[in-house]
Fold:
Amino acid sequence: NAGVTQTPKFQVLKTGQSMTLQCAQDMNHEYMSWYRQDPGMGLRLIHYSVGAGITDQGEVPNGYNVSRSTTEDFPLRLLSAAPSQTSVYFCASSPPLGWTQPYEQYFGPGTRLTVT
Amino acid sequence: GNSVTQMEGPVTLSEEAFLTINCTYTATGYPSLFWYVQYPGEGLQLLLKATKADDKGSNKGFEATYRKETTSFHLEKGSVQVSDSAVYFCALSDSGNTPLVFGKGTRLSVIA
Structure:
């Protein structure tokens, strides 16, 4: 299994540009989520999904959109990038309740985004 | 709401020193507790976990005990190595597949 994969690894955007951060997992996990990591702030939840067709907002959803059309993919869209969105973005997934490793989340390697 | 508070870093230790990173939590119900580790340039990976009171999670020489009476889950290691240099995150999850709530992370540097 490849686990959780994220593309791209690095990205530089200009203010106002849009882009999509890709996240995919091949473990048949129902739960997927996006976090951003900023110095001194830990990880903050942006959006999450408990299954295909279902998404919900986390702590810091403004400026980001998500959709979940398949179990495998959970892309994060920045509609109009702002310097405040400069951060490292992590995607994570976890198996449904009742699997052998309940609640554990598996993280991707991250995307480092800079908005100028 | 649920929250996690962990000691601020950075923590700098000499090789073979004893490590404690404090973590306390606030939660309704009976959360599961986790320690994640992030090595430089990488994503987070699970270090250990505990799903009920008095459980002890352990891995790679690290240990943490779920203390419901003190709402704590302190991370300990008896003898740290340079390779343990990383950022450590304490986290909790309420029942089911609810989002993880993370502490702000503690950076550990171990010098030879």
